[in-house]
Amino acid sequence: MEGEAKKIISEFSFLSSWEEKYEHLISMGQEMPQLDNSLKIEKNLLRGCQSKVWIVCKYNAGKLYFYADSDALITRGIVALVVRLYSGATPQEIINTKLNVFSKIGLQDHLSMNRVNGLNIMIQKINRHAVKCLNDE
Amino acid sequence: MNNYDLEKTANLFPCLSRGEEKMIYFDNAATTQKPTVVIDSIADFYTNGYSNIHRSAHNLGFRATQRYENSRGVIRQFISARESDEIIFTSGATESINLVANSFGKNIVNKNDIILVSEIEHHSNMLPWQQLAKEKGAKVKNIPLNKDLTIDVESMKKVLNDSVKLVVVHHLSNVTGIMQDIKEIVGVFQELGIPVFVDGAQAPAHIRVDVKDLNCDFYCFSGHKAFGPTGTGVLFVKEEFVKKMSPYKMGGQMVSRASLISPEWADPPLKFEAGTPNISGIIGLSAAIQFIEDVGMEKITIYEKRLTEYMLEELSQIPELIIYGGQKKAAPIFSFNVDGVHHSDISTLLSENNILVRSGHLCNQGLMNYLNIDGCVRVSLAFYNKLDEIDQFIVVLKKILSFLNK
Fold first, then answer.
1. A2-136 — its CATH code?
2. How many CA atoms lie within 13 A of B134 on its CB side?
3. Within chain B, which residues score under 70 in pLDDT?
4. Which of B216, B220, B363, B376 is the catalytic position?
5. Number of CB pairs < 8 Å for A and B?
């Protein structure tokens, strides 16, 4: 996780204007495989007031894998970033690691402070999956 | 512009011009900024005259009570109510609505009765009525609408029957800035003796509210949307109804004789203001209202009309843009979508450019369903906003749209 976080921070460090940063974020979203429509269901939907976000979690051989989508371009980019960060980590790693990637790439103000559909809710959801996996074991 | 001094007025709002960072505040329908006089009045109360009210028999207490009760007088005058006793202070429009639903609605709505509510109300003016109907086994029914999102009075007359016990409408839409013809609506129901409740949350920042002229039975608004502090609200109740209401919040200062068996309630409005109220907030609200009167409501309305026309003209240059609710706005509130672009992407990038707007369902899912959309961008102005801010907004919006459409 921390390796991926460093990589993301380094990618963004070359970008200075909002256009460049968002362009990168959006293209990250576009590169992420789309979630199949059959998975874009109520159960996987994060409750939010701005745009729709679906997150699906698979637990395999001690690691968690996340698949996600959104109907908005920028949100899709954010989810893609979150998936890059957390997918493939063990539940313990997810619970123990506090990442501050967003403040380091200069997008924190605008992306994470959103009341409902923010980054925090996505990360909470991922943490809940991690806790559940540990409890189920 | 009949001597409306925009620069001078805008400079009285410190948060609009803080530091080096330039910001365009177009989120006034969510909440308005506060002028220095409001901030100072609150500080002055805590610094020079702080006490509890209505109970403490000392000079400080008398003076504080006087300031609080004077505020009631200021509000009465502002909305042209007949009596100060018709003004109940609350924590906001939300509490005002819940108060009426509980203190009045519960007394008059019974099983199988109907509460008529327009389907495009803000959640605050929908959920308390749905809850009331649920508790009483009553029904909430929609009021029919015209294409321009005004209430279709003629069709409304056709759905009227003896079961209708209460009518609930908004004055000025938080999504479209379109005004309902309250006078006409009240006219229809008054003949039948059916009370009309009006949610005026958006109105006092933009238009003259005259409850005597509107002739509605209930009217409410929030202080924070009219340049006053958060946690303040007003509920106007016509005298004849205020007597028919029973308190729903119990506590200090609302009884004239407290007894475990049968307490005697204080006279209205105090019997609806149990507990120590938001004294400093109400004093701040009164300062805000006096500020509006000093600027001049008529000047505000005229200036905002120009803002509205200019914004509509500029927005019409963007062909893919769909604006909701048409052109006949009573306040500079504009909600729109751009074909093929998500509203949240637009508001995120506007914010990145220090233009503050709101996007989403705007706490009005009823209207979103009615329009068959899942959200929109809302740009809402106040009398301190400037024409050149509209120019800058349009430049940035076009830039964002070409960026997102790349």
1. 3.90.1010.10
2. 6
3. 1-2, 19-20, 253, 258-263
4. B363
5. 44
